[in-house]
Fold this sequence. Notes:
Blueprint: H1 3-16, H2 19-26, H3 30-44, E1 49-51, E2 56-58, H4 60-86, E3 92-99, H5 100-103, H6 107-117, E4 121-128, E5 141-146, E6 155-168, H7 170-173, E7 190-193, E8 200-205, E9 208-213, E10 216-220, H8 223-231, E11 237-240, H9 241-250, E12 254-255, E13 261-262, E14 266-273, H10 281-321
Parallel strand pairs: 3-4, 3-5, 7-10
Antiparallel strand pairs: 1-2, 5-14, 6-11, 6-12, 6-14, 8-9, 8-13
Helix pairs in contact: 1-2, 1-3, 1-4, 2-3
Pfam families: HTH_1 (PF00126), LysR_substrate (PF03466)
Keywords: DNA-binding, Transcription, Transcription regulation
Domain HTH lysR-type: 1-59
Amino acid sequence: MNQLAAIRIFAKVAECMNFAEAAKQLGISSSVVTRSVATLEQHLSVRLINRTTRRVSLTPAGQLYWEHCGELLRQLSAMDECVATTAHQSGGMLRIASSSSYATTDLPEVLAAYRLQEPRMQFDLTVFENMAEVTVTNFDLCFSAERRLRDSSLVCRQLAHTRDVIVASPAYLSHRRAPRTPAELSSHDVLVASDSPSRYWEFRDQHGAHRVVVRPILNMQSPLLVKRAVQAGLGIARLPRSLIQSELADGTLRPLLTQVELCGDERTVWVLYSGQPHMALALRSFIDFVVERYRQAAAENKREIVATVGLAQHHFGNTELL
C-alpha cells in the first residue's frame, strides 16, 4: 500500500464527504477511491468513514485522523515549496474564495500584479454571495467585504474600508423625482441586496439619528444583480462605493441624499486564512504581498488627501489676501 497516496485520497473524501466528488477532483475512478480508503482502514484496523446509501460521515477516529492528515499534508507541501524556492522555481496553486463584489472589483488586479512577481503561480477561484456558503477546508484564503465579521476560527486581517452609497440611474430619475430627504425614500422603489438592511435605513443629520422604513420591490442575494437592476432603472439601492466607482465617475449611476450621513455604511475588506503553524510558502508569500499592496495604497491615498487639503488651504489664503 502506498500509504501517502491513500492518506491524500482519504483527506479528499473527508473534505468532500462524497466518494464520487473526491474521485472527480483527484482525476481518478470512484473504485480506486473506495478501494484506497478500505485499504487504509484495514491497515489501521479501524473504520474511518461511515458509509450509507444516503450520506458519508467521519467516525470519531476518522475525524481525528483527518486533522492529523491535514497537518502532515501541509508540512509536505511546505517541504516541496522549500525545494522549489531553493531551485528558483517558485509556483504552485492557491485556492481562493472571494465574495462576488470583491471578485469583480479589486481581485483581478491583485492577481495580475502578483503574477508579474510570481509568473508560475496558478489560482483556483470560488466566488460566493454569502460567507456561510464557504467551507473552511475548501480554500487556502478568502476575501470578504462585510459590515460585521462573523465569529471565525480563521486569522482575519483588515485590508481596506469602503462605504455604501445610495444611488439611482438617470433613467429612473427621469420619471421619478430624486428624494430630497430620507423620509421620501418610503415613496420610492427600493432594491435590496441580502447583505444590506432590508427593513429600515438609518440616517444622521443636525437633528440627530432617525430611521426610515423601506419597502423593497426587489430583494436579491447578489449585490452585482442589484447593481444591474439599478442601472436598468428599476429603483434606488445602497451599494458599496468600491462596486460602483466607475459608474459614479461616468454618471451612469448618481448618488442621492449626499447631504445627510448614512449610518452603518462602512464595510471592511478582509483576508481570512487558517493559522496553522506550517503555512505553505506560496500562501505566506501571497498574503504578505496583498497586505503590503493595501498598506501602500492607504499611504498613497493619505498623501493625496494631505496634498489636496494643503492646496485648498493655500487657495483659501490667497483669497483672503485678495
